[in-house]
Every structure is written in C-alpha cells, then in structure tokens.
Design a protein that fits this description.
- By secondary structure, the chain is α+β, with helices and mostly antiparallel strands.
- The protein folds into 2 domains: 97 residues, Homing Intron 3 (I-Ppo) Encoded Endonuclease, Chain A (Alpha-Beta Complex), CATH 3.90.75; 37 residues, no CATH class.
- The chain is built from 5 helices and 8 strands.
- The strands form 4 sheets. It has a two-stranded antiparallel ribbon.
- The radius of gyration is 26 Å and the shape is elongated.
Length: 161
C-alpha cells in the first residue's frame, strides 16, 4: 500500500543555493545527481543524505516511521539522485521489498522453485521468517526415511550372511 502517490514538482531554482551547487541534472533521466557520494552511492550533505535534506527543505517533514524511497518504477535508478519527484515516503519494509535484495526477490515469488507448487496458506510452512513448500518438505522427509531404513537394513543383512 502506497502512502503517498503525489509526486512533488520542484524546479531546481527552488532549491537552496548551497544544495543546488552540489547537483548536476541528468538530461536523460531527469535525476538530480548530487556529490560527494558516500561508499553506498548516496549524495552527502552536512553529515546526512542530500535527498533527505532537500526533501525537508523544499517539500516538508517526513512522517515518523517513514523513509524516502528512490522509485525505480518512476525512472530513478541512482542512489545519488535528490530529485523529490523521484522519491516517495514509505515504510522501511515497503522500501526493502521494492528492491532487489534476496528477501525482496523471495517475497515476490508465488510458486515453489523446486516443485512449482503455489505458495498458498495450505501448502506453505512458515518458521522464523522463512517459508517452505509442504510438498517439498514431505518429499525430503520421505527420502530421509528411506535412507535411514536402508542404513539399518544393510548391517542386518551383513550379520545374517
């Protein structure tokens, strides 16, 4: 669920001069690329992130519990971008799940990668933040029990011979 769908429209001239001097506009994407960058690729400004400082100065406060998301689906692929039209306040969980991390990729999966069964309430086992397909669990347990039985039978056959 998106908390804010309206994108703020700002001209670069509306940005305070000390911030504006750190920004170069990408003609291709419309991104306002700031500098200098930290090791994660975010533009820095007075000990914080430029995109947050610019949002606070030009758009307004960010509600408690929300972070600013660089929206790739809106055409912004750069962490250095400070254009408020490319940012959206959202919860941290929503921001992470929109991304490309392992947890985001796995959360978007609708079917088991091994057997193809759908992840439904009836067919999904959840434990400690993970999920597993019940069909695959049954298959693994069956295979384990067969190996255990075979390991028990082998010594009995050897003793009888």
């Amino acid at each position: 669920m998106e908390l804010l769908t309206l994108r703020p429209v700002l001209a670069l001239a509306d940005v305070p001069l000390d911030m504006r001097l750190r920004i170069t506009v990408s003609a291709r994407s419309g991104c306002w690329l700031g500098s200098p960058l930290d090791r994660y690729g975010y533009a820095r400004y007075k000990g914080g992130n430029l995109h947050r400082a610019l949002w606070l100065a030009c758009v307004g406060p960010i509600d408690p519990g929300l972070v600013l998301d660089h929206r790739e689906d809106w055409g912004c692929f750069s962490r250095a971008c400070a254009n408020p039209a490319h940012l959206n306040p959202c919860t941290n969980a929503e921001n992470v799940l929109r991304g490309i991390s392992f947890s985001a990729i796995n959360a978007r999966k609708t079917h088991c990668g091994t057997c193809g069964a759908p992840f439904s309430d009836a067919n999904t086992y959840r434990h400690k933040g993970r999920r597993d397909c019940r069909s695959c669990i049954r298959s693994r347990v069956r295979s384990y029990k067969e190996r255990q039985r075979a390991a028990l039978v082998k010594p009995l056959l050897a003793a009888a011979a």
